[in-house]
Amino acid sequence: MTERMTGAQALVRALEHVGVDTVFGIPGGAILPAYDPLYDSTKVRHVLVRHEQGAGHAAEGYAQATGRVGVCMATSGPGATNLVTPIADAYMDSVPIVAITGQVASGAIGTDAFQEADISGITMPVTKHNFLITDPADIARTIVEAFHIASTGRPGPVLVDISKDALQQETTFNWPPTMQLPGYRPVTRPHSKQIREAAKLMAEAKRPVLYVGGGVHKAAAAAELLQLAELTNIPVVTTLMARGTFPDSHPQHMGMPGMHGSVSAVGALQKSDLLIGLGVRFDDRVTGDLSSFAPQAKVVHADIDPAEISKNRHADVPIVGDCKEVISDLIGVIQASGQLGDYADWWTTLNGYKETYPLGYETFEDGSLAPQYVMERLSAIAGPDTYYVAGVGQHQMWASQFIAYENPGTFINSGGLGTMGFAVPAAMGAKMGRPDATVWAIDGDGCFQMTNQELATCALEGVPVKIAVINNGNLGMVRQWQTLFYDQRYSNTDLQATRRIPDFVKLAEAYGCVGLRCERPEDVDAIIKKAMEINDVPVVVDFVVHQDAMVWPMVAAGTSNDDIKIARDMAPRWENEDD
């Protein structure tokens, strides 16, 4: 296919050919040439967001809910720099998005022209790759390369910055173009010798743990993980980014590890003699003080990104490869050898942790609402087929702890970067990617006020998301740290919600949404059910909860996982210390 057209037309045509159906963005001077042919496209729906940050998070939500590449678009200068936060967020959580930005004309680059910013330079540390295009002949090929890089190997964000004159000039459009990526060859097939070594360690271990991260979900390997776990009878922990990749209801599931993980999951890692890390980063929020993390454990570490292997914790058996193939090969070797470990004593210990230290929470004598109760009821009423999209903070941790996740990919949140303002636009993107699914955003009153302008986009575009605002009148996680570590000196964390500025119900209504409020435990079920019945417009529920509700368990930052607290000044008593 060869045709003469402008660079802007080539851009839109290329997006159509790579299968893009939705682009989130805002026009501006440098990108404006691209918006003209976009106006005529019958295949690509452009969603006019209210802030570029919203465009980026919506692209992330779309990508995480569908497994496809999300796309956002912005103009040069401030438009592009407003995308930096979601690009960095996508980079930390390995989310495949392509961000397309306009740039000033090529002759003006480097002159501090109006609305010029070196967005390629700015985003270089937080993109998987980025491109600056000044020749219209490069546009179609670069788009194909960008989508290939974003979606293969370890997924991640790719930036395509296009000068205004490249969009305006004519070029010959050739399809399909030939990619020119000679140095990009991600390894997906694991080395068979390493697989055999891992299987041998698993059979010899007495206290092994399958330490499962977001890479297993990214590899669409939940079914293989379940098969491996049931074949070997090894306990499983799922990180924040892997919630739902292994069913919560499965008896082998120990819960989520880390700073706010369950005692059973944290204890399993600390007391283990073998960690089988699958698609994990050995992140500081999981390991706590790295020097004291799982001190007796050998480590098998499988990841598609060789840079992650032994980055934080030395791997005794390093395996570079796609988790789906790694797990499948492990299953094959274990079945062929027939060698299975005996973990009876290990299970006695772990089941003791589960029974003695289940997740719990405090109720309040004044009858005020416990946020954990809201999560429990939301989980029960909305069910495991719902997509839950969380912001960052206490509400995110409660959502990870008290909602039951049975299906992979149903918990979408900002893990690595911890971006306040993620939930509303990401939920919008998830709902547009999965229009037949129920999507609940779970947000804090602090996070919600960062990007709630996207409610206007949801209302106008017909995207009926449901938003639970966990309103404790504070920047809750920061307040919790002030309570525990700063002598209850609450410096600049009080949002003064008692004055209802803003009134979230009125705000929702002003944006064309339904606004509801819940302040008593006895009203929770009825209000959630009412929200579930409204499917033609967005719904915002203001859950007014107790300001002193805390997230427990907790491992204080920088301390050992052995020092986990189940409540203030209360720690579990570890059994079998002589092990």
From TrEMBL:
Residues 5-120 form the Thiamine pyrophosphate enzyme N-terminal TPP-binding domain. GO terms for molecular function: acetolactate synthase activity; flavin adenine dinucleotide binding; magnesium ion binding; thiamine pyrophosphate binding. Residues 391-543 form the Thiamine pyrophosphate enzyme TPP-binding domain. Pathway: Amino-acid biosynthesis; L-valine biosynthesis; L-valine from pyruvate: step 1/4; Amino-acid biosynthesis; L-isoleucine biosynthesis; L-isoleucine from 2-oxobutanoate: step 1/4. Binds 1 Mg(2+) ion per subunit. One of its GO terms (cellular component) is acetolactate synthase complex. It comes from the Bacteria. CDD domains: TPP_AHAS, TPP_PYR_POX_like. GO terms for biological process: isoleucine biosynthetic process; L-valine biosynthetic process. Its cofactor is Mg(2+); thiamine diphosphate. NCBIfam families: acolac_lg (TIGR00118), PRK07789.1 (NF005860). This is Acetolactate synthase.
